[in-house]
């Protein structure tokens, strides 16, 4: 199955889980992209979604109960090896959840893993646009979301925050609008959804 088909299948049976439709869509998007990448790269699913196998089994049971048998095959798989950047991002997001819920911790770990990929963060999460990522941040990571007052690109902002919190100076320009790389942090962040791209590239 293609990533878009997996997403549709997960969402078709997602009404019996603990999440509302938007959150179910977010988890379905990340899982769909992750499953597709795992197959293409011949690597374990935890390496592409950021959660160990037992946690993925729990995610399916609680959000997509109709998919429990499929995800049950992942039980016992070890979690991914996290580099320093990913671990710092995990810690930042986990420390800035809105409610401190289990689903928010899952989402923090999944987002940190997907942020290691090269595209815009919203794309590597399988979302339909940047605005959906902003909704996630405002809804589930409100303490950090409200700090992005200049609407910086989310991946740039998160890593900039990590550097500031750790006492590093990320850039030497005192005012952003004086910087030659302004567009790298604040420029256009449009593009094609990876779910749509995967479907197109396989035809």
TrEMBL record:
- Name listed for the protein in its UniProt record: Nitrogen fixation protein NifQ
InterPro entries under this entry? NifQ
Gene Ontology molecular function terms on file: molybdenum ion binding
One annotated GO biological process: nitrogen fixation
Taken from the record, one Pfam family name reads NifQ
Top-level taxon? Bacteria
